[in-house]
Amino acid sequence: MLVSKCSVCPVNSFSENASTASTSCKCNRGYSGPDGVQCNTCNTGFYKKTIGSALCSACPTNSVSNVASDVLTNCKCNKGYISADGTQCIACSAQFYKDTIGCENCTACPVTTVSNIASTTLKNCRCNVGYIWSDGSVCDMCDAGFYKNTIVSATCTAYPANSYSDNASTVLISSKCNRGYSGADGGQCHA
Fold first, then answer.
1. pLDDT, tens only, 52-85
2. How far apart are CA 152 and CA 123, in angstroms?
3. What are 127-140's pLDDT values in tens digits?
4. What predicted TM-score, i.e. pTM, was given to this entire model?
5. What's the pLDDT tens digit per position in 84-113?
6. Which residues, in sequence order, are CB contacts of 120 under 8 Å at separation 6+?
7. How far apart are CA 181 and CA 178, in angstroms?
8. Closest-CA residue to 187 (of 157, 168, 160)
9. Any residues with CB less than 8 A from the CB of 138 and at least 6 apart, and which?
10. How far apart are CA 149 and CA 157, in angstroms?
11. Cα–Cα distances in Å, from 58 out to 35, 61, 77, 88, 107?
12. Which of 123, 148, 152, 180 sits 20 to 30 Å CA-CA off 44?
């Protein structure tokens, strides 16, 4: 009587009991390849929820998954994007940021700061015009006599000599000549 030995299926695949051909070996979930040969891992940003030779499917736009993901809900929103796992991710609104991967909420930027949509870190929140970083976490108003007309990290600029302005001024023409001096708003003041 001739006794034959069972063969092992390739890594990351399996077959039903009493299978008779190597093509009975099917790729596990999270792996893809032709039946009976080595199965390849679904790459980052892809998943496969079925057993067999089907291709790995891409996660929704602006989301990512670990390698060998086997369900759509393994797709998590990228930093700067929000939604339930496995669904289409939408960008955090301007004035918000999200520094984690997953379905966590977007975080509001501090008061007197602005950010672009899909911001990924608190550092993306920049001081508004008329404000400047004081200690790296809070924006302070430009002092009276100073202005800032950009959102970029910059210092407040002094108005011309012999002039004044309110706090948090945003444009040069906000300055007025001091008492006893004359000149155009934002320009040189003369006695």
1. 999 999 999 999 999 999 999 999 999 999 999 9
2. 11
3. 888 888 765 567 88
4. 0.76
5. 999 999 999 999 999 999 999 999 998 888
6. 79, 80, 97, 98, 99
7. 6
8. 160
9. 110
10. 9
11. 21, 8, 13, 12, 28
12. 123
